[in-house]
Amino acid sequence: MTRTTRNRDRASAPHRLLDFLRPELFVRNLDADGEEEAIRRLGALLLEADAIDETYPESVLEREALSSTAFTDGFAVPHATSMSAQRSAIALAVNDKPVL
Predict the structure, then answer these.
(1) How far apart are CA 87 and CA 26, in angstroms?
(2) Digits of tens for pLDDT over the chain (100 positions)?
(3) Engineered SS bond to 46: which of 11, 50, 51, 53, CB 3.0-4.6 Å?
(4) What counts of helices (H) and strands (E) characterise the chain?
(5) Are 29 and 95 a contacting pair, CB within 8 Å?
(6) What is the rounded CA–CA span in Å between residue 47 and residue 80?
(7) Rounded to an integer, what distance in angstroms lies between the CA atom of residue 18 and that of residue 15?
(8) Burial bucket for residue 52 (CB in 10 Å: 0-12, 13-18, 19+)
(9) Do strands 70-72 and 26-28 pair parallel, antiparallel, or not at all (unpaired)?
(10) What is the pTM of this model?
(11) Are 28 and 94 in contact (CB under 8 A)?
């Protein structure tokens, strides 16, 4: 039973991820002078989408100050320290050149 449930959950994961992604939250070649500006600009998109409140980007910056959420030189997943978003959402920037 556990294996069946686990396999079902794995199969549905890509579809569940699509629930959090919306075209208006996707940016190609985000123009930002550093990670703080990038976080604030993506936060503004989430704010416009009613996914977060105005304090959320500051919480993300506080989290980044504790420890970077960069996995490699080209991939990071900034997130807040608390569960204060109104709903789950992902703002995504894909750049040809990385944000410093």
Answers:
(1) 17
(2) 777 767 666 666 666 777 778 999 999 999 999 999 999 999 999 999 999 999 999 999 999 999 988 887 778 888 888 888 888 899 999 999 888 7
(3) 51
(4) 3, 4
(5) yes
(6) 14
(7) 5
(8) buried
(9) unpaired
(10) 0.79
(11) yes
